[in-house]
Amino acid sequence: MQFETTKISGVFLITPKRFGDARGYFVETFRENLFEREVGAFHFVQDNQSFSAEVGTVRGLHFQLNPKAQGKLVSCAAGALLDVAVDIRKGSPTYGQFVTAELSQENGCQLWVPPGFAHGFCTLKPNTVISYKVTDYYSPENDRGLLWNDPAIGIDWPVADGQAILSDKDQKQPKLSDLDANFVYQA
Architecture of domain 2-18+28-175 in CATH? Predict the structure, then answer.
């Protein structure tokens, strides 16, 4: 596995090695000892998957409050998506900045989104399946979000505001300036 640092400390792009032949390929998608050595000691407790039929489906930006904050190891099992991680840790030198990565079935890349980041994605192909491991269980009372198209963040989404397919919930999330300081940067 190849672990690449991104412009925001703690967020990693991970590319597992594929072993292929005429039948297809084999890939080790997660290996705890390598992940711990390169990223840190995180314990995954739940695996999630979502399916989006249409191109331009935006899900996010989501996070869970402390003490149920989640780190997410995100991959694309089918199709392709633009994955986004936004730093929401107050006092961070990269507060409000984001990392994007194209994840697809073809490239096999994964994005590690640590606790203290809002996460979202936009589908680039029809019938896209996103899979992700999380470090804490889903907690409805701690479930929060950030407005996907907040101009203060400035994410260059691959879909226009009026064309994005969104849930009612994601259309009404607060802006970065309205978030409480649940996450505080620790140098």
Answer: Sandwich (2.60)
